[in-house]
Amino acid sequence: MSDADRILTALRLETDESEHITDRVAGCLILQYGLRIDRLVNLTTDQFLVHPEEPGVLGLQLGRDPLWLRPRLSALLQRLINERRPLAAPLRTRETPYLFPGLRPDQPMTSATLQRRLTRLGIPSTSKARNGAWLAIVGAVHWKMLADLLGLADGTAHNWHKLNGGDRASYVASRLKASQAPKGPE
Prior knowledge:
The protein has 186 residues and is mainly alpha-helical. 53% of the residues lie in helices and 4% in strands.
């Protein structure tokens, strides 16, 4: 999935009210933050946070540090939290801890089911969409921060950083250069 297709699909999912809220949120989390589909379906309401200083902003606790979501995606996520129900009609009145519940309230949706739903929305491969998101993020965020936000192993995040053309020394060099920059006019 090209970067342009990934971004345009994510923007469409954020705004297209004709699509199911479950699919929209799942697609956005994969396209924008590179969440793995097997991890995504197992998310529970316990992993969501409300930003203490910014009203309406939600976050995910995936790793050591919270991953704060953009306001529009936060609003979609709040709707999903309020509206989520098991897939089986007779059980839709029962509470579920899962953000993406399966047929029964005590089980999450399967990865295969969610993949089929996302393919219908124009995301043919969640792994390719995830890879594109990680390459974009690791180009903007240091690999260690990526590992802490998304709950990745340090080695995995570092390998993605190297694939994007970075190395450990470049981060240290950029921090040193920024700290030595003149503070005022010369």
